[in-house]
Amino acid sequence: MSKRHDAIFDDVLKDLSVPESPDRGGARFLKRQNALSESGEREEKVLRWVDPDSCVMWARHNRAYELLTEENCRDLIDSLKAQGQQEFPAVVRKLPPGQGAEYEVICGARRHFAVSWLRANNYPQFRYLIEIRDLTDEEAFRLADIENRDRADLSDYERARDYLQALELYYGGKQKAMAARLEVSEAWLSRYLYLARLPRVVVDAWPQITDLKELHARSLRPLLQDAEDKVLAEAAAIGAEQAAARAGQGAFLAVPQVLARLKAAALGPKPQAEGEVIGTGGPKGGLTVTRRGRKIRLEFRQDIGHEELQAAFHEFLQRQFGG
């Protein structure tokens, strides 16, 4: 884990008796002992083994629990079987009475799924290891974000949607304030927020939401700006094909094919090698005009004369705008 992430943990957990852990790939707060208190004494963190059915996911949890499967949790399931128990506790909050569950999971959705799967598949001895914390919603959001920010199994789109919701819930819509609290650049955060705001019809054009990356949103941005109606229409057509594939009718359209079709819809067919030439009377040739979608490219030789180029531009403007 980076020093930047360590600093964020220190900020989130500074008043919460923070434990440390040697697990660099996981969360520093999962060790069983607290850091030294102001008195210089060390306190033991109280952990509990519970039935996973006593826990529910926090409504603002940044992982789509419904997307967890035996396949994408197989590494964790096998690890728990090999160890004989869960080694690192999930972070939870106590729920008030009458909520239908006792605890709310802030960090630990995959651990919850893996333990639940083992208990349902001939390993009833497994229990869910939890650590109860008293966290505000904003602290819980930042804690969950820093735990999962570098994990490849959490998709860009899931993370982006989480950021967009948090922007309004905790930061009053102020992107700068949110970036400062997360200790990321505004540009970085802006790219994820744009991904989260993609029209649903575009999202549905991808095989799965886990395939939709922040990089793809960057590629789509100029296309949607220049030819939104065409892109949305093509996305709807692709989405219908992907929906059929999900229903078992045919194969999914791969991400590179999706991008290629959306780009083709926005830009139209490739222009011919030779475009319209304006002002061909001079010895250096004139102004070559190539039209592609809503864009126009003007090209001329580097050694063209000033008067010849000026005349060609004048003719182009007359043809383009009249007068």
Name the poorly predicted regions. 16-40
The order of strands across the largest sheet is 1-5-3-4-2
Strand content: 5-15%
Order of helices and strands: HEEHEEHEHHHHHHHEEEH
Specify the CATH class of the largest domain: Alpha Beta
| Termini gap | 64 Å
Oligomeric status of the shown chains?
single chain
Average pLDDT score: 83
Domains (count): 4
Helix content range = 40-55%
**Alpha-carbon Rg, integer:** 28 Å
User: Do you know the CATH architecture of the largest domain?
Assistant: Alpha-Beta Complex
Please explain how this structure is put together.
It is elongated, with a radius of gyration of 28 Å. The chain has a five-stranded mixed beta sheet. It has four domains: 148 residues, Conserved hypothetical protein from pyrococcus furiosus pfu- 392566-001, ParB domain (Alpha-Beta Complex); 43 residues; 67 residues, no CATH class; 46 residues, no CATH class. About 8% of the residues have low confidence. The chain has 323 residues and is an alpha/beta fold.
Task: Give a brief rundown of this model.
The protein has 323 residues and is α/β, with parallel strands linked by helices.
Describe the SSE topology.
Layout: H1 3-12, E1 47-50, E2 55-57, H2 74-83, E3 90-94, E4 103-107, H3 109-120, E5 128-132, H4 137-148, H5 156-171, H6 175-182, H7 186-196, H8 200-203, H9 214-246, H10 255-267, E6 276-278, E7 287-292, E8 295-299, H11 306-321
Parallel strand pairs: 2-4, 3-5
Antiparallel strand pairs: 1-5, 3-4, 6-7, 7-8
Summary tags:
323 residues; alpha/beta; Conserved hypothetical protein from pyrococcus furiosus pfu- 392566-001, ParB domain; 4 domains; 5-stranded mixed β-sheet; 11 helices; 8 strands
